[in-house]
Design goal:
Elements (H helix, E strand, L loop, with lengths): L1 E6 L7 H11 L3 E5 L10 H4 L4 E6 L9 E6 L6 E3 L13 E6 L2 E7 L7 H23 L3 E7 L23 H12 L3 E2 L13 E2 L11 E2 L2 E5 L7 E6 L11 E5 L2
Parallel strand pairs: 1-2, 7-8
Antiparallel strand pairs: 1-14, 2-4, 3-4, 5-6, 6-7, 8-12, 9-12, 10-11, 13-14
């Protein structure tokens, strides 16, 4: 199964590139973050892609946040939902999950903490609630895949100027500690299974639209619980796919 994740920075503005992407890559599952639209604002093509089902989870605030998930009709999920048992994770359209048997697949779009202390507090709270939810599933011996824009550069290898950004949200010690705590639960950063060097990013500033300077951050991840580690075939960053300030990522896994 090939699972993709992409922060599209507004699905309406990315429509042309998105349609091309889904036609050429033919993902089994495609997670979307930063939807920034209500379903009735999206064109027929985005709502009705042949051979796919879709769940949209827009934020209440217009043109802001939101997630979606497209998946092939042939995948028989037992549940696909944007509503969890956690009220914090249900805010701002930031969570979608799918379940098939004992396998849970999560699409998270975690908040950005750069605009204010209040938003940073919300981000850290959101992280804490993810950790609690996932810990509960692991304790019940469930298998979990987490994908999406997690809005953190986990290590110094994951951003172009770590020393200059020690006090910048996205690379704060408190944010990176959350990521470390996820790994302590037994999760594996799948990209690092195959690539140990730095310089590989998933977000770049729009002032460098062709990404030539490569002044980027790795914000987008696929994490898998340890029961799934040996099923991972590859995990890649698709840097040459444009249309957003983020590029898509891909996980190829036997499930």
């Amino acid at each position: 199964m090939k699972i993709f994740s992409w922060n599209v920075n507004g699905l309406r503005s990315t429509e042309k590139e998105f349609i091309k992407f889904i036609k050429t890559k033919k993902p089994d599952i495609l997670m979307i973050q930063e939807l920034r639209a209500y379903p009735d604002q999206l064109s027929f093509f985005l709502k009705s892609i042949p051979n796919y089902k879709v769940l949209f989870n827009p934020a209440d605030r217009p043109g802001y946040s939101g997630t979606a998930i497209y998946y092939k009709n042939s995948i028989k999920f037992e549940k696909v939902s944007s509503v969890t048992s956690d009220e914090i994770l249900n805010l701002e359209g930031r969570t979608i999950y799918c379940r098939i048997g004992d396998l849970y697949i999560f699409n998270f779009y975690t908040p950005n903490g750069t605009s204010s202390e209040e938003r940073l507090k919300f981000k850290l709270d959101f992280y804490s609630h993810i950790l609690n939810l996932i810990r509960g599933l692991i304790n019940k011996n469930k298998s979990v895949i987490i994908g999406g824009d997690l809005n953190v550069a986990a290590t110094e290898l994951d951003l172009y100027a770590p020393k200059k950004n020690l006090n910048h949200s996205g690379f704060l010690e408190s944010e990176r500690k959350w990521f470390t705590d996820m790994l302590k639960l037994g999760f594996i950063d799948t990209f690092r299974m195959f690539e140990k060097e730095g310089g590989h990013y998933t977000w770049w500033h729009m002032r460098d639209p062709e990404r030539k300077k490569n002044h980027g951050w790795r914000f987008d991840y696929f994490l898998v619980s340890k029961k799934l580690k040996n099923k991972v075939k590859s995990s890649r960053i698709l840097k040459n796919v444009f249309g957003s300030d983020h590029c898509p990522i891909m996980l190829d896994i036997d499930i």
